């Protein structure tokens, strides 16, 4: 019988100054709890199983690897856009973000 891969979830914290850090991670029930808390606080959820597997290797409080900066920055920028936020001094385009 083939064993199903456990559901995983991670949460990142970002203060706008330093690299995002891993603030929560878990499998199965803990993953569902992390997702439920995110939904409760209207935190945007981005689903990417491969990225979660990479980030789940980090220890809690550890900064994301530099190799993932651009990927994570794009996710954070899109999450901010969805919430109507933008960095200080940034003028958003009326057409929304561009996708390259």
TrEMBL record:
Keywords assigned: Bacterial flagellum protein export, Protein transport, Transport
Q: Which SUPFAM superfamilies match?
A: EscU C-terminal domain-like
Q: Which GO terms describe its cellular component?
A: plasma membrane
Q: Biological process (GO) annotations?
A: protein secretion
Q: Which Pfam families match?
A: Bac_export_2
**PANTHER family cross-referenced by the UniProt entry:** FLAGELLAR BIOSYNTHETIC PROTEIN FLHB (PTHR30531:SF12)
The record's family statement is: Belongs to the type III secretion exporter family.
Report the protein's function: Required for formation of the rod structure in the basal body of the flagellar apparatus. Together with FliI and FliH, may constitute the export apparatus of flagellin.
Identification of the protein by name: Flagellar biosynthetic protein FlhB
């Amino acid at each position: 019988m083939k064993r199903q891969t456990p559901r995983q979830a991670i949460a990142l914290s970002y203060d706008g100054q330093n690299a995002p850090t891993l603030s929560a991670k878990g499998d199965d029930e803990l993953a569902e709890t992390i997702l439920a808390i995110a939904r409760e606080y209207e935190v945007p959820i981005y689903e990417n199983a491969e990225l979660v597997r990479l980030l789940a290797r980090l220890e809690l409080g550890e900064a994301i690897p530099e190799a993932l900066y651009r990927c994570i920055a794009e996710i954070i920028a899109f999450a901010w856009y969805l919430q109507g936020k933008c960095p200080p001094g940034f003028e958003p385009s009326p057409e929304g973000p561009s996708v390259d």
